[in-house]
Amino acid sequence: MGLDNQPQTLELCVIEGDGIGREVIPAAIDVLLRVAPDVQIRTASAGFECFQQNGTSLPEETLQAARDCTAVLFGATSSPAYPVEGYFSPIVRLRRTLLAYANLRPAQHLPVPTSREGVDMLVVRENTEDLYIGHEHMENEGKTGIAEKVITREATERVAKLAYELATRVGRKKVTIVHKANVLPKSDGLFRRVAMEIAANYPQIITDELYVDTAAYWMVKDPNRFDVILTPNLYGDILSDMAAAWGGGLGLAPSLSLGDRVAIAEPVHGSAPDIAGKGIANPTAAIMSVAMLLRHYWNRLEAADRVDKAVRVTLSEGDHTVDIYTQGAMSTKDFTASVIANL
Ligand code: NAI
Ligand code: MG
From the alpha carbon of 322, which atom of ligand 1 is closest? Predict the structure, then answer.
């Protein structure tokens, strides 16, 4: 599995994407090259602007570069909320095509006023199926929209194994399986059953379960009760954004998608069109995503520790970007320079 894979040459396919992807990714690479100067970078394009220029949001050359490198740093892309003929979300497609089947989304207390004391959880989100396969169609003369939800034993097994292996490795105590098997006994019921089967192999870890609505309630009411959350794609998307709020906000929320032979480091946030181009985006999520890549895929623990520590020191000294609070907010570049100075 991805956790055991330690490639020799560190090649990184960098896809900045749209909007603030183009601002936070260069910042993250600046930091990465300080702690791992041997990393070889290949750049590739994807996203809405790429779609407008090339007629595809994820060109074949980009896919090939990602396959060749086996590690990808992905910024964010803009996806329209209305149907655009031929357009698809490149990150969803990239995760599925590369079989980066588990999306790890930690939310941890950071030294900023927007972050909640004591929060330390990891959402492990299944990344390849559920409603996100995008099988949708219209019926009833356009008056009914139908989407297919797919859950398989295979995909559930691999993501559950990865969640429990990782939990064991990093010394976490509890895994909460989140689903809605009461209403969806065939799809979510299968997810629950298979996840419980895997859980039985890890008796040293406490396993419990919650319906997703109850999980959302507890996420707001008492986030400190969560350790690892294991859940299908859609619930994981939503719950991890909620968790990100406790971590201090989307600008601070990193993630890593792992598969057997691939890793995609990707901040949780999107292209943030409201602030794009202003040079004020928070690069922390992208920088910490790179730290996750170093830690969980490249096994460069010392480098990962250096990055995480530098981010903490920078934030605890009061350096911050506008998403944290406006007074004294720094630009992306100045904040990144602070992080680098603290490495
Ligand atoms: P968003 O994450 O782009 O922005 C939500 C809010 O958080 C905005 O107010 C934004 O300014 C702020 N924000 C996000 N990241 C920030 C950062 N690093 N620093 C400072 N402020 C930050 O989500 P939204 O607005 O729902 O989506 C915008 C576009 O991004 C859409 O086209 C959406 O499809 C796309 N998107 C792409 C993702 C990806 O490529 N992985 C993930 C989520 C959304
Ligand atoms: Mg999301």
Answer: 20
Domain-wise residue ranges, the chain: 1-100+248-343, 116-246
As assigned by CATH, the class of the 1-100+248-343 domain is: alpha beta
Q: Give all strands of the β-sheet with 206-211 in edge-to-edge order.
A: 40-44, 11-17, 71-76, 263-265, 256-258, 102-108, 120-126, 228-231, 174-179, 206-211
Q: What is the rounded distance in angstroms from the CA atom of residue 271 to the CA atom of residue 23? A: 10
Query: pLDDT tens string for the chain (343 positions)?
Result: 556 655 567 999 999 999 999 999 999 999 999 999 999 999 999 999 999 999 999 999 999 999 999 999 999 999 988 889 999 999 989 999 999 999 999 999 999 999 999 999 999 999 999 999 989 999 999 999 999 999 999 999 999 999 999 999 999 999 999 999 999 999 999 999 999 999 999 999 999 999 999 999 999 999 999 999 999 999 999 999 999 999 999 999 999 999 998 999 999 999 999 999 999 999 999 999 999 999 999 999 999 999 999 999 999 999 999 999 999 999 999 999 999 999 9
Q: Is the full-model pTM beyond 0.70?
A: yes
Which residue puts its alpha carbon closest to atom 16 of ligand 1? 251
* Catalytic member of 30, 241, 260, 305: 241
**Statement: 116-246 belongs to CATH 3.30.70.940:** no
Q: Ligand 2: distance of its center to the CA of 105 in Å?
A: 11
